[in-house]
DNA sequence: TTGAAAGCGATACCAG
DNA sequence: CTGGTATCGCTTTCAA
């Protein structure tokens, strides 16, 4: 196995200096004729820049990173892999890392990525309130996905119009005659903007619905405990519909319902706040709010590449919700 | 923002040469006393090795890579992210890349990973027959997952005992009284060992079942076409059970069945050859063959790290199947 | 337009 | 046990 050719080899081949070859190869200098000659020689030798040497020399690694708060969650897992795929499809090298639900690890990975000279970051943050985001965003183009990063004005973001999503769900359920709504939301606040709690309450009030809030730990932490609590809450409150704000919990609720002998959607409407691929096959029908996956990915990637290539400043894109109705009961509360 | 301290800075601080410091920090040399002093100084300065400089100097990047044939497939996606998570959990840096169903890209990514000096590879190969695997495996510890790499004796592998899986499925269906089996398998052969086709036929013959084979394109390629073909094949052959070998097609079959007005499992048994997280919620019940995910991940990661740390030679681990029965009809063929 | 030379931040060989 | 010093392969001033 013969060694890979280096810049020097190419230089020797064309009788120029490595510097000149370097510039020529990147199209930064040289007469058209020189460039062509260099290109040809490089091609002939099968020369490829060594990304590591380049990174050491100029501080850029040529690699973008996707940092995911937790790939345990189906939707985030799909998002993360789609982002990587989109980047690769645009001929960028991309790597995916996963904080696995641990905020400390999120921080550690961030340091790691800095060390690795990641040129840009796509982040589904675990803790959007963490102060360190601004420091990172200041030195590296960064696009947050899902929620704005509270303390990082330098970061771009692709955010979901949660309030609009809530309104969509509440409208839908109200129109079907539901009066009591059980809302599952994450234990820790996650949106830097108006708290989900407030928005949901407000939307519900506008439609005359009663809301019961149930805070659940992040998905995957302890899969069983919350199911029991959900089942209990359903019985206790007599809610006829469950709205799952915490990503990934709609499936758990379906499991809980099944255990409790509740039929979905005949006895209970379940609405998720995301739209995973398998939702159409799950149970007899799970209604979800969908944030057009492709649009999210496309927007985020475009933002990042723009920032990278054209040094555009930070910006925020808002993704509108769409309701995908796959089964909700309209049985009025009196009938139960 | 002050510059990160370098090895030189630490050396200056303790009055030693960078070489000595480098060795001391890695615990390769130096009296206990020297090491302690160096450690302390490094700590005090907040020194962290620069992985890029290190990679350039010694050819190792300190990063392991997971190369996935296609993250479009739910099961592979889960596998890939789980592998990354497992590696990170063991304090390794890991990156995930995705060939997205394109064999050429698989090859290109492999080159890329070589350039990036990946220290080890975990691979769910798209094309296990490709000759280039051996070249890669020869220079980098490599563990293949799912199938052996036909031409790469230097690579380790975690393989699924497909034949045993087939037997499990066929036994199960035969016991329920099924006589006609529709088997979906990938267009391209994927197992270097005995072809799936042969194994399935053999297992079926042993139980007196008739087998209809239907070759389908890889998941995600053209989501609609195969569904129609499946529906047609069901009607044409009068099969009472479908066995999906091609990963990810069980869900599509359920969709096809629904469109055709077939009820699962009352009219049709559907068996998948993997066990995705959501299988228990899908439809009224999807029976699957399960390859203990955790065991697969654990085994693969352990193999890779052993090869890395102890220079163990290539080995092969076989994962045994388990049948997860979630709903199959026992309606005898005569009743249809 | 081109080239010589100084980094970038470590590692590893080889003397002392 | 230590410490010069030559790499590793490329980028980038700065002169020519």
UniProtKB/TrEMBL annotation, chains A, B:
InterPro entries: HTH_LacI, LacI/GalR-like_sensor, Lambda_DNA-bd_dom_sf, Peripla_BP_I. Keywords: DNA-binding, Transcription, Transcription regulation. GO terms for molecular function: DNA binding. Coiled coil: none annotated. It holds the Pfam family LacI. The keyword Transferase does not apply. This is LacI family DNA-binding transcriptional regulator. Residues 5-58 form the HTH lacI-type domain.
């Amino acid at each position: 196995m013969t060694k890979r050719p280096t810049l020097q080899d190419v230089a020797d081949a064309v009788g120029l200096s490595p510097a000149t070859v370097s510039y020529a190869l990147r199209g930064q200098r040289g007469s058209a004729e020189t460039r062509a000659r260099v290109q040809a020689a490089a091609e002939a030798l099968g020369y490829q820049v060594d990304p590591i040497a380049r990174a050491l020399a100029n501080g850029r690694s040529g690699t973008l990173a996707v940092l995911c708060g937790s790939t345990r969650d189906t939707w985030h897992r799909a998002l993360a892999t789609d982002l990587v795929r989109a980047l690769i499809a645009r001929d960028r090298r991309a790597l995916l890392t996963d904080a696995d639900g641990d905020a400390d690890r999120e921080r550690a990975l961030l340091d790691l990525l800095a060390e690795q000279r990641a040129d840009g970051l796509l982040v589904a943050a675990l803790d959007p309130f963490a102060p360190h985001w601004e420091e990172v965003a200041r030195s590296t183009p960064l696009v947050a996905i899902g929620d704005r990063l509270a303390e990082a004005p330098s970061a771009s973001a692709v955010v979901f119009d949660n309030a609009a999503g809530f309104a969509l769900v509440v409208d839908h359920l109200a129109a079907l005659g539901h009066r009591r709504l059980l809302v599952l939301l994450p234990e820790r606040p996650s949106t830097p903007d108006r708290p989900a709690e407030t928005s949901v309450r407000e939307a519900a009030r506008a439609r005359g619905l009663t809301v019961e809030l149930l805070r659940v730990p992040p998905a995957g932490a302890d899969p069983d405990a919350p199911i029991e609590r959900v089942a209990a809450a359903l019985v206790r409150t007599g809610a006829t519909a469950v709205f799952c704000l915490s990503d990934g919990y709609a499936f758990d609720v379906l499991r809980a319902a099944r255990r409790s002998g509740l039929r979905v959607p005949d006895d209970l409407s379940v609405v998720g706040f995301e739209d995973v691929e398998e939702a159409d096959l799950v149970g007899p029908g799970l209604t979800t709010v969908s944030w057009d996956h492709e649009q999210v990915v496309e927007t985020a990637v475009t933002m990042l590449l723009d920032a990278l290539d054209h040094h555009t400043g930070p910006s925020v894109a808002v993704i509108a919700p769409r309701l995908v109705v796959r089964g909700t009961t309209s049985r009025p509360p009196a009938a139960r």
